[in-house]
Amino acid sequence: MRKSGKIYFSLYQWLFLHMWYYVDTAKLPEDVCEKFLQFDQDEETEHFLQNCYDKADWFFTQIGHSLAKSVLSWFMTKTSVNGLLQRGSMFVFSDTQLKQLLNIEDNWRGENLLDLGAGDGMVTQFMAKYFDRVYTTEVSSTMQWRLKEKGYSILNIDEWDNGSLQYDLIGCLNLLDRCDQPMKILNSIHKSLTPGIGKAIIAVVLPFNPYVEQDSEDHLPTQKLSVNGKTFEEQATSFIKDVLEPTGFTVEHFTRLPYLCEGDLHKSFYVLHDVVFVIKPKENG
Ligand SMILES: C[S@@+](CC[C@H](N)C(=O)[O-])C[C@H]1O[C@@H](n2cnc3c(N)ncnc32)[C@H](O)[C@@H]1O
Ligand SMILES: *[C@@H]1O[C@H](CO)[C@@H](O)[C@H](O)[C@H]1NC(C)=O
Predict the structure, then answer these.
(1) What residues does ligand 2 touch, defined as CB less than 6 Å away?
(2) Is the dihedral of CA 20, 21, 25, 28 positive or negative?
(3) Which of these CATH numbers, 3.60.15.10, 3.40.50.800, 3.40.50.150, 3.10.310.40, describes 34-281?
């Protein structure tokens, strides 16, 4: 088990080292291309993956998890099951990649961070170390429980934008395709950032495929984002031109990163493909 894990690890590395981060910049309009940051697999990302393989080696733990999961799945959503079992940890960016995206140094400090749809807070942690106060939102109650455990304040999803707080950074990672009203969230982000310095970091899985897990019968969002095109390049461009810019944002940087999730009995890890934008309100918009 351990051995084959290691072999697959190097195969994956060899095959995907560049694929996971690759964007065909020749297919981007010039003004979009200028904002693209090229990343690569770094030590922290490798460490996360290695940890996934090590965990998969705990064969009996895995059987325990899978059994428990199939029993619990009868009456709980998948997100809640993963939260309860402390499985399904996510990885979006390393510390080094985050600093590059935000254009900050190690000793940079901000006041308020808000991470929307923070999940179990694993990705929040990467941002939290740079802020005095950390706020989060979550609809899943088991995830809220994990966030409380980590010491993060949880704000009501209808109250974080009521004007009583302003945020130097708002994280909105892998949420816009999983929530019912993504436009409402984008507009709220726009008005809740600290004037002059506030930025938001948005991650979206491409190909764009909205799916609402909680409180929805057909799992389709009430608000539809107009993301056009088929390829990663086309959809990333459309997200900028048809969603972010019309909402009054300018894009500082964007990149492509693997969205990694700790695996289960079948696989050591799962990978989706994120486009990650750093945006701020337009100067006079
Ligand atoms: C795919 S997870 C992303 C978790 C984490 N941000 C990450 O990047 O790994 C999406 C999360 O958003 C939560 N969610 C869905 N709609 C929400 C909303 N309107 N407000 C806050 N959280 C929401 C879900 O419960 C889920 O935990
Ligand atoms: C706004 O939300 C905050 C945090 O959830 C809450 O404490 C405060 O009372 C709310 N203010 C108003 C005016 O509703």
Answers:
(1) 155-156, 159, 162, 164
(2) positive
(3) 3.40.50.150
pLDDT digits (tens, 9 = 90+) for 62-72: 666 677 667 66
Give 165 Cα–ligand 2 centroid separation in angstroms: 9
Atom of ligand 1 nearest to the CA of 185: 19
Give the distance (Å) from ligand 1 centre to CA of residue 179: 7
Averaged pLDDT of the chain: 89
Please return the burial class of 194, using the count of CB atoms within 10 Å of its CB with bins 0-12, 13-18 and 19+. middle
Determine whether the shortest distance from the Cβ of 155 to ligand 1 is under 6 A.
no
Cα(177) to centroid of ligand 1, in Å? 9
Residue 52 or 108, more confident: 108
User: Which amino acid does the sequence have at 172?
Assistant: C
Ligand 1 contact, 121 CB (< 6 A): no
Mean pLDDT within 225-239: 98
156-173 pLDDT, tens digit each:
999 999 999 999 999 999
Distance 87 CA to ligand 1 centre (A): 15
- Rounded to an integer, what distance in angstroms lies between the CA atom of residue 78 and that of residue 175? 16
Burial 217-235, CB ≥16 within 10 A → b, else e: eeeebeeebebebeebbbb
Most informative mutation of 112, 153, 160, 162 for ligand 2 (most atoms within 8 A of CB): 162
64-121 residue pLDDT tens: 667 766 766 666 666 655 555 556 688 999 999 999 999 999 999 999 999 999 999 9
